[in-house]
Automatic annotation (TrEMBL):
GO terms for biological process: fatty acid biosynthetic process. This is Malonyl-CoA decarboxylase. It comes from the Bacteria. Residues 1-23 are annotated as: Disordered. Residues 151-403 form the Malonyl-CoA decarboxylase C-terminal domain. Coiled coil: none annotated. One of its GO terms (molecular function) is malonyl-CoA decarboxylase activity. It comes from Pollutimonas bauzanensis. PANTHER family: MALONYL-COA DECARBOXYLASE, MITOCHONDRIAL (PTHR28641:SF1), PTHR28641. Pfam families: MCD, MCD_N. Residues 85-148 form the Malonyl-CoA decarboxylase N-terminal domain.
Length: 428
């Protein structure tokens, strides 16, 4: 029996145990005093949310009131409410499944999963400041992982004909390349583009993750061209490449619950069904950690990374050698770059993408795509000259290639600590 099945069998108006009417009346009276006097519930009252049977009417009403109050609260009050939960949670002995019971109770009283997702986002935000919150956060993560199983998610296309409220959410949640106008949004969801998102039936109005797709005759190397609404529309009949140029998770409360890899695989299937002439699938991806990584490299580290002898000599014993290269590459990307600067910048970017820590790629985007079985196919100079692109990666972007026949082999190579690269990077 799943957690959802349990909830279906335990509606909020289930019969209460009539053998303890005074206890129930007393709880309701305390609840009334809490709300009327605007005070936090004492731990004994809050513990009822954990310990009472899932069918207990009084405890469920308390959960409903708590949910309404939490939903309307500002950050300060939410933190206080979470602190009260954590304090009550710490007193549970034996704990058993009482923490899970709290969240199932809150879920049963809610119209959707919004509250639980917001609750975990706040727990992640404050878990290092509120004692005992980490235990609750981990329990909630486990439940959300089951409630957001990929088998429960629905893949839907988003077009210019989608409801305005949904299109506004694309603007709100776009995390890679800002959408600055309705004209830009219309370009992203035009007939010659595709946008797909995963939805959950209990959060039907919110895309959990979405991907934006462009089509081309060859692998794209410049995101400005893809984003510019004034660039003529591509001919889908001539398209052989599908380019995933933006993937955005929308819910911080679902961090660590991965369904992005399933999204891309489902989208590939949809695209091949609709456009069977497509031959290749690749991304044009940012490298959000490149500048931070390079700036931390001292002269000794740069000796290993640089290829030119003069550059190696200049970096010798220079504690800020990496930072100086950041400044040099950012200036070059913003203006006219020499061939030497471009070559060195691309080499450093490729070595960064291959860097591993604790068995995982250092770059968060590389971690995602390589973890899906893609390979690092190419790095592109001045591919994103936006302020964000220059600040994060000196304007350099990467192509990850999804070769459907090689995904498993690439994953095996990644597990061995050697991320797969394409022929374009054989010089690294």
């Amino acid at each position: 029996m799943t957690a959802t099945d349990t909830l279906k069998q335990a509606p909020a108006n289930a019969d209460v145990d009539e053998s303890k009417p005074n206890e129930t009346q007393g709880l309701m009276a305390r609840l009334g005093r809490w709300l009327d006097r605007d005070r936090w519930p004492v731990p004994a009252e809050t513990q009822t949310l954990f310990s009472a049977r899932i069918t207990d009417v009084a405890a469920n009403r308390l959960a409903k009131q708590w949910s309404v109050r939490y939903g309307a609260a500002d950050g300060k009050e939410r933190r206080a409410l979470l602190a009260a939960l954590a304090q009550a949670s710490a007193g549970l002995e034996p704990r058993g499944d009482q923490g899970l019971r709290l969240f199932r109770r809150l879920y049963a009283q809610a119209d959707s999963l919004h509250l639980l997702v917001e609750l975990r986002a706040d727990m992640l935000r404050w878990r290092n400041q509120v004692a005992g919150l980490t235990v609750l956060e981990r329990e909630l993560e486990g439940l959300l992982s089951s409630w957001f199983d990929v088998g429960m998610l629905e893949l839907r296309p988003i077009t210019w004909d989608s409801p305005a409220s949904l299109l506004e959410k694309l603007i709100q949640y776009e995390a890679v390349h800002e959408i600055r106008s309705w004209e830009e949004l219309r370009h992203r969801v035009a007939d010659h583009r595709r946008c797909y998102a995963f939805f959950h039936p209990r959060m039907n109005d919110v895309p959990l993750i979405f991907v934006e797709v462009a089509f081309a005759t060859q692998m794209a190397d410049n995101v400005q061209v893809l984003l510019d609404p004034k660039v003529p529309a591509s001919d889908l009949n001539k398209a052989r490449w599908a380019i995933f140029y933006s993937i955005s998770n929308t819910q911080p409360g679902l961090r660590g619950i991965s369904f992005g890899n399933f999204l891309l695989k489902r989208v590939v299937d949809e695209l091949l069904r609709e456009l069977p002439k497509l031959k290749s699938f690749a991304t044009l991806s940012p490298m959000p950690g490149f500048v931070d990584w390079l700036a931390k490299q001292d002269g000794k580290a740069m000796q290993e990374l640089l290829h030119d002898k003069a550059d190696k000599q200049q970096a010798l014993d220079d504690a800020s050698a990496g930072l100086k290269w950041v400044e040099r590459l950012q200036a070059a990307a913003s203006g006219t770059a020499s061939e030497s600067a471009q070559r060195t910048g691309l080499r450093l970017a490729g070595l960064y993408l291959k860097s591993m820590k604790n068995g995982q790629p250092v770059d968060v985007v590389a971690r995602f795509h390589l973890g899906n079985g893609a390979r690092i196919e190419r790095v592109n100079w001045a591919a994103d000259r936006s302020a964000k692109g220059i600040a994060q990666s000196c304007g350099i972007m990467a192509n990850y290639l999804y070769d459907l026949e090689q995904l498993d082999d690439n994953l095996a190579q990644l597990a061995a600590g050697k991320p797969k690269t394409g022929l374009n990077l054989r010089w690294l």
